[in-house]
Amino acid sequence: VCSRTMASKTPVGFIGLGNMGNPMAKNLVKHGYPVIVYDIFPEACKEFQDLGAQVTESPADVAERADRIITMLPSSPHSREVYTGANGILKKVKKGSLLIDSSTIDPAVSKELALAVEKMGAVFMDAPVSGGVGAAQAGNLTFMVGGVEQEFNAAKQLLTCMGSNVVYCGEVGTGQAAKICNNMLLAISMIGTAEAMNLGIRLGLDPKLLAKILNMSSGRCWSSDTYNPVPGVMEGVPSANNYQGGFGVTLMAKDLGLAQNSATNTKTPVPLGSQAHQIYRMMCAKGYALKDFSAVFQFL
């Protein structure tokens, strides 16, 4: 374990070069790490080849060449496949390797992967992120980390290249738990902001003025003051750009589904979380799947 921590600029593996993974891996390259990449879509790797990264044929190849690997994947089945599949990381993982999964998946799946990784003599941590594509590009994501506390500093050393907040949450799965709770609240507050703005506009209020009043009053929240869903109220947010970019409706529906599973498993009542889940699923069914989640204003 010590040799891994000491050799700070030894290669780092990165699997999953999508909207989030791409800028995250680029920040590792910027910090001088030799990066070894894999993505199921070869064209996603092309850019990294030009940056001098090694491109591999499978997750197993990455595990053979790097003893610190970060994965950033769309969902639980993808994470399972990358870790435990036929050409998965666990086929060739080295003893003592540090495996960090930044995907947002079910906490139960994180725990299951951690057990499989442990059996191979390696270390697994879940480290989902908050902040979206903008924060990934700027390198100021928030990482919520679950795993063995003794390994947290080794993980933090890598994660601080990509984020400004790296928070230790507890055992494996607690990082996912924190992320799911945040996103459930975010969906509820976005729908609430959209409803309030919609009502105010229909009552004859100017949307910019209404937003200003909400943001100096007790109704203020991130959805109203940083990410307002009404076109023309703010610059540089998806609502100003026909709801392009940002955090997609499909992903929000997925995260709300994870919150529902967790609520069912823990017998926790989440009436507004359930309602939010249904609204975002309806949006997916009605052609909003690829829009930013703030498009709920348009949908309502």
Descriptive notes:
The chain has 300 residues and is an alpha/beta fold. The protein folds into two domains: 2-171, Rossmann fold, CATH 3.40.50; 177-299, N-(1-d-carboxylethyl)-l-norvaline Dehydrogenase, domain 2. It is built from 14 helices and nine strands. The protein has a six-stranded parallel beta sheet with strand order 3-2-1-4-5-6, with helices on both faces. Strand 2, helix 3 and strand 3 form a beta-alpha-beta unit. Helix 2 (21-30) packs parallel to helix 7 (132-138) and helix 9 (174-202) crosses helix 13. It is globular and about 65 Å long. GO terms for molecular function: 3-hydroxyisobutyrate dehydrogenase activity; NAD binding; NADP binding.
- Beta strand %: 5-15%
Largest sheet: 6 strands, parallel
Under CATH at level 1, the class of the largest domain stands as Alpha Beta
Q: Judging by the overall fold, what is the CATH architecture of the largest domain?
A: 3-Layer(aba) Sandwich
Task: State the distance separating the first and last CA atoms.
Answer: 53 Å
Silhouette: globular
Q: How many β-strand runs?
A: 9
* CATH topology tier name of the largest domain: Rossmann fold
State the low-pLDDT regions, or none: 1-6
Active site: 179
Pathway: Amino-acid degradation; L-valine degradation
Pfam family, one: NAD_binding_11
GO cellular component, one term: mitochondrion
List keywords for this structure.
single chain, 300 residues, alpha/beta, Rossmann fold, N-(1-d-carboxylethyl)-l-norvaline Dehydrogenase, domain 2, 2 domains, 6-stranded parallel sheet, 3-stranded mixed sheet, 13% strand, globular, disordered N terminus
